[in-house]
Amino acid sequence: MIKKLLALSISLAFSSAPALVHAEGNISTGKTKAASCAGCHGEDGNSMGSTFPKLAGQHAGYLVKQLQAFKNGSRNAPMMAPLAMGLDDKSVEDIAAYYASQRISTNDLPILPFDDDDEDEDEIDTEKRAEEQKAELNNLIAIGSDLYRNGNLKTDVSACIACHGPYGEGNKPASFPTLKGQHADYLIKALTDFKNGARSNIPDNMMHMIAKKMTNKEIQAVSYHISMLK
Fold it and tell me: What is the residue-wise DSSP string for 90-141?
């Protein structure tokens, strides 16, 4: 199964390459132009808010593709659309080049929220619950790691590794995004949007077809795993 998906990924990369060729942007100019993006995405592309995606280290071709999608409306994003529409093609390339040149930051382990029923527990019970949640978190990350590398044959969920690489580095020629070190909360939202059809600008709705077969637990688990990749 994985071999087939890898073959598909390579095939898509070569078949798509001619359409993805574009002039490389200017990093120095891009830094200046990206100043208005810092409020949400951070000065160096490492956003502080976990619902805003990190852009640092992302493939320039992917960033160009997404900004163009915001501009032409093929990716629905009320917040990003007006900003992207104000950028000419050269500015898009410059900003993409700047963020691609930056290093993505690492994340701390995700923290599972306590249940409301735990609020009145004494200190001993709270400590016990913390240990239980630590075990639950480790189990979720393990599930996510297996799903990322092997998929789910029973439900026909494809392995993420086929397109996004063993370490979440993505596929630059095919403009498949790098995922390593991305915020777990953002990944959960993105996968949920793909699952619900709120976001499906990928050719042939590839991510939509994958995500719609995933359970909410699988989305959470694989997002936690990816957020820990370095």
Answer: HHHHHHHHHHHTSPPPP-PPP-PPPPGGGTT--HHHHHHHHHHHHHHHHHHH
Q: How far is CA 181 from CA 45, 57, 108, in A?
A: 12, 10, 10
Q: Are 183 and 47 in contact (CB under 8 A)?
A: yes
How far lies 103's CA from each of 6, 8, 50, 67, 135, in Å? 27, 29, 17, 20, 31
Domains annotated for the chain, with CATH where assigned, are 2-106+128-228 (1.10.760.10)
Return the number of other C-beta atoms located less than 10 Å from residue 15's C-beta: 10
| Coil, helix or strand at residue 171 | strand
pTM, to two decimals? 0.85
The C-alpha torsion from 12 through 216 and 53 to 68, rounded to 10°, is 40
Task: Give the tokens for residue 141.
Answer: 């990350």
- Chain-centroid distance of CA 64 in Å reads 15
Task: Render pLDDT for 76-106 as a digit per residue (tens, 0 to 9).
Answer: 899 999 999 999 999 999 999 999 999 999 9
Which parts of 180-229 fold into alpha helices (H)? 184-196, 206-211, 216-228
Find all residues with CB under 8 Å of 124, minimum gap 6, and list them: none
pLDDT digits (tens, 9 = 90+) for 112-146: 866 655 555 555 688 888 888 999 999 999 999 99
3 state DSSP class of 77? coil
CA 42/CA 23 separation, integer angstroms: 25
